């Protein structure tokens, strides 16, 4: 028996560990899969053993195999087992495996909740750390809900290592469980002022990330960030905050004004630094990362500031020059980053970048696609009316040269983007644009045919003046359709024919030779086109036919009209046989129509008018959002039922009864309103189909275009490239270049004419004026469009509602985080807290059965009692909350324990005794805080521990040997209803400013059934007054002091003080530790001294409810703060 | 043969730059990293860390496509590329490619800096790290990464702190196998205690 165990152990020693596995895989290159499958079998054996070390080893190997792409989801439960090992070694491996293998749909995650909670509260910070790290990878909504409170507690952990992790992971928790945001936010906000820079930056990170998505909810934080910005020395925190302000300023313009000053200081600081090193900027030194980051950060700051400040164009200019050096560098990374930074500057200072057009065009020739794409992006922002043609011409050259289809497609979309941006703002000559579009159709195998087509349609419909030209071009395109379709039937470019056919049909009155086009549209080859295009062909052939008939109207010779009818009758049967239903239907309908028309023609009946009536009326472009913007008429409630809602099934069961009673005729009402969901969906689908196929449905919304691009069918079809040595030209088409030339000539002519006019004017004015300088290079406004282009704007319904445009993706998880954070927390919003069932778990089943009767009754009683208690305590609650300022209400509103504690900060005063005893300490550096702890609940409180987060200035004195974050044990316990006082000594360095210290009190609440650990956060407010000690002073010494001239003076006025003068003095004496030196009628002099020996003298006068206080002190800051505090005392009464 | 990852890296800094470092230390800024991949020149995955929930199938697809795209790029090309909606930042150290995906707009350099810092951390931890170190101690490489990044955000900007945390955690971890050995010894020799 013993031998067997030993044998087992020795076997285990020879188990493969991870290294062996890796080595084995490397040695079995030929039959890797086979080797691994044997390994997996071994691992399965190992997982069956009880020894946790063996299991951990197996799980470690599985993690490796998972990375190689093998499915290990079957071992999820074993991973959980290893996670729950008490040894850190195995726990670490378990969590690693979990973070690599688990995802939201892993069902065993449910089992881990308690384990993770246990690890989170482990005394070992590395256990906690490992659990947090793992959790960040596989947190699910359930886990987030269950653990939110635990993680929130960890945000105030004593170790910054844990606080930092907890703060960061909170972000993931918010995403998964948005309800946790409001309860956790106050604490997150606190962390912005955490003494540890790592925690602070984590908090800034999280809040900035949240605020970036929903800036308006974080406006109230602006003052806090403002303070951080002016006080922080951590530059990266600065970067973040500046970015955050960038998001906030558009919402609150006042912020911008406020920001200018500190930002100016900042930029001057940075600028001074940079002016020293900017001239060192050469390619060699720039290779350093930190340098580059700094430089690019500089640019970012500069840009974020430049909107508020006018005088930075010089530094921007300098930056652009330096960026040019970057872009010209041979290092591709520098080039890329230079271009990227350039595009940032372009947004605010387009002029300073535009002069570097040459460089950017040069970058288009780069071998690296990333760089070419960046350059394209820049070009997009650089176009103007003046250079659009030139830039597009260059781009067209690149289209010809481009090798990969992806890049060529990118170029194509960019050209169209550039031209169509801001409603064709930069296009002066639409003939040129149409010819560019036609030239683009030469691209074989592009998947953006649809894009070109939609542009053609858009321009033809919206620019009325261009229709004649467009129709002519489209007719040529149709005539040369065979060139486009090539031999690949499903070529993306044939989409263009869709547009061409529709334009020719709709605007057929502009066609020179409709008969020819009609013939082109009915060629047999058309039948090879995709169905939706054929359908458009057929429909528009009918339109053309109508036009032909109309043109022949009144003509005595009716042969042309009859020829047209014959052509239709000959060719349409081909389409009637189409497999595509739409084509078939339209074709057979039209065929019958034409046959009827032919009969009438033979009887010499005029039909053209009737036929034209079929296609009468003009189509106007409608804005994509028009439907949504139709205002709802007054008195129309869309959510209200038009008819009574159909009764529920239950009442239907009763219906037979009701039928007999005449009182309820309602039930017999027919159910008009019930709309079948399926039916609705079907109709919607049908409508979509119809719209897609309907040429009259203009201007598809951008999203539908995207959908098209993503359609797999088009994208993944291998495209056969035709290698043509001669660039393919559609015969008879004018080249865009021609238009460039024409446009140049036109502009020159215009300019010349203008000059002439100017001269004339000048001649007339010469007598009066001296010299008037030449107008120089023409400016943007000087270029007038070639012909009056009337861009029809898209139609909007009357009284369209100005709706916000930022429609967000409903799937965006950040949408759920759009939560108002300033509203006070409601009861229902507390985070779910684990109820304390530890005691129950320990109970043996027998006991449980015994106690069942009792326990089933008890909770009810208790809860009602608790409720009463809670109500009673509510008022107290409020008071306490005000005392603490910390909004951790969930601590208070826990249902199970209503612990009430009052802290009363009796006084913070300088303690002579302490000073005397520790005389070797610095003078006046100590303050004693006395706290009264009062237990207001029904439970016993024990193990109280008091802790304060030290600031640089003030520190809690702790016993020797304890660390700076350790808490002090309070040396007493509190039975219910008892209070006691404890004193804490603080060391203070500077006393001239008031200060707040954050702290926590932890304690154990013990009652019969259970004991729980609780925590209370509070803030200690060290006012400047608390640093003053009542010191008597004689009037002659007082007079001397005032005469000495060392004191700075300051004064305040208190209005509406409604109390006797001696009360007023008593108040100042009591609240602010002053003593009266002398009092004459309604005038008194007062004196106090700070613990560091500052003299504070007051002269208080009262006259009809107005009190003036003139004060002198040798420390103006201290004086100002003391006076503020006095003012506050009187404003409260 | 093991290859030093730093073979191609020069870590020289100018004197005024080092003063700059202490003066204006530009530490890593926040960003939402989507995932990080380490793969060899042959396209073998060495480490993967995903900060976005994706199914295994999607992960495999992305990895395959991305590895192909990155390996197809010529050595002198820049370290950045736009791929799908993501910005990919990669860098090659000796035989290993370090590749990160972010969704941000202006984090290229910072991502590059993160990669670099991670490599430096590996180098410090393993002592002139090579690809084999990462292959054979892949769990250590993960532990270091986890101390450095959390949920796609940089959690610790000080290299010293990261290494300290790792070392202390390592101290907690006993030498694996030792317990097993002791267990055996105990069973063989009866009352033996170490």
What is the topology?
The complex is a heterodimer of chains A (1133) and B (194).
Chain A: H1 2-13, H2 18-27, H3 32-48, H4 52-67, H5 76-83, H6 88-101, H7 109-120, H8 125-138, H9 141-154, H10 160-176, H11 181-190, H12 197-213, H13 222-231, H14 235-248, H15 253-277, H16 289-306, H17 313-328, H18 332-348, H19 350-354, H20 357-363, H21 369-382, H22 388-401, H23 405-424, H24 430-440, H25 449-462, H26 467-479, H27 481-485, H28 495-506, H29 514-521, H30 531-551, H31 559-576, H32 581-602, H33 608-613, H34 649-653, H35 655-660, H36 677-693, H37 702-710, H38 712-715, H39 736-765, H40 838-842, H41 845-884, H42 889-892, E1 901-909, H43 912-917, E2 926-935, E3 940-948, E4 954-956, E5 968-969, E6 979-988, E7 995-1006, E8 1011-1022, E9 1028-1029, H44 1035-1043, E10 1048-1054, H45 1061-1072, E11 1075-1080, E12 1083-1090, E13 1095-1103, E14 1106-1113, H46 1116-1132
Antiparallel strand pairs in A: 1-2, 2-6, 3-5, 3-7, 4-6, 7-8, 9-12, 10-14, 11-12, 12-13, 13-14
Helix pairs in contact in A: 2-3, 3-4, 4-5, 4-6, 5-6, 6-8, 7-8, 7-9, 8-10, 9-10, 10-12, 12-14, 13-14, 15-16, 16-17, 16-18, 17-18, 18-21, 20-21, 21-23, 22-23, 24-25, 24-26, 24-39, 25-28, 26-28, 26-29, 28-30, 29-30, 30-31, 30-32, 31-32
Chain B: H1 15-23, E1 33-40, E2 45-50, H2 56-72, E3 80-83, E4 86-93, E5 96-102, H3 108-126, H4 131-136, H5 138-148, E6 149-150, E7 153-154, H6 159-172, H7 178-189
Antiparallel strand pairs in B: 1-2, 1-5, 3-4, 4-5, 6-7
Protein name (chain B): AP-1 complex subunit sigma-2
Membrane topology (chain B): Peripheral membrane protein
Keywords (chain B): Coated pit, Cytoplasmic vesicle, Golgi apparatus, Membrane, Protein transport, Transport
